[in-house]
Amino acid sequence: MGFEGWKGDFVGFFRGLELDNSKRYFEAHRKQFEEDVRGPMLELLSELEPLLGPGKVFRINRDIRFSADKSPYKTNIGATAGAMYIHLDARQLFTATGAHMPDSAWLTRYREAVAGPAGEDLARCVEAMREAGVNVGGNELKTAPRGYPADHPRIELLRWREVGAGTHFDIEPWIATAEAKERIVESWHRMRPLSDWLTSNLRADNR
């Protein structure tokens, strides 16, 4: 059976997990998680693979080894389809692309590209995506990064510590239909210019 949206009570599952984030609750609702939450996501990724590439569903278990919050489970399901991230919880469907928490070497290469001729293309991409309703940004530094003047024409892009674009959807009836896939694909096409720019300008061999 192909992807037909999230038809089950995934909202109820996640809200219950928010109230009782315990192994007891999760094991009692494991079948609901597999059928109403994870199953549709796997079907979606299978259908997106020809367009976006292989997909992966993240584990719902949290890594609590170095966290003060010892809640054992995430209250969402997350997945990747190629360069796109897909997130679903009790309140929203969220899609994104870009670089989350990149290391300093990556940021150095990114800023070099932004300061050069390719940066003009990125600035145009960002403007067009924002006009299309896409959130674009990246956890900005409060000041200019070292080595760049505060009056640089692309100072906003240079100050980014993360580079991402995202689209939020409220939970509405279409989430339980095949239209959910259409909305996700549409959001990808609006965000793709950023992904393409990053791929073209920050490949490992593009130094």
Describe the structure.
The protein is of the alpha+beta class and 207 residues long. The protein folds into two domains: 1-90, no CATH class; 98-166 and 181-207, no CATH class. Helices cover 45% and strands 15% of the residues. It has seven helices and six strands, in the order αααββββααβαβα. Strands 1-2-3-4-6-5 form a six-stranded antiparallel sheet. Strand 2 and strand 3 form a beta hairpin. Helix 5 packs antiparallel against helix 7. The chain is globular and about 55 Å long. The mean pLDDT is 94.
Secondary structure elements and pairings:
Layout: H1 10-19, H2 23-28, H3 30-52, E1 55-57, E2 77-81, E3 84-88, E4 92-99, H4 104-115, H5 118-131, E5 135-137, H6 155-159, E6 163-170, H7 179-201
Antiparallel strand pairs: 1-2, 2-3, 3-4, 4-6, 5-6
Give a brief outline of the structure:
The protein is α+β, with helices and mostly antiparallel strands and 207 residues long. The protein is 45% helix and 15% strand. The protein has helices at residues 10-19, 23-28, 30-52, 104-115, 118-131, 155-159, 179-201, and strands at 55-57, 77-81, 84-88, 92-99, 135-137, 163-170.
What is the first-to-last residue Cα distance?
45 Å
Count of DSSP helices? 7
The SSE string, one letter per element, is HHHEEEEHHEHEH
Parts with pLDDT < 50 across at least 5 consecutive residues: none
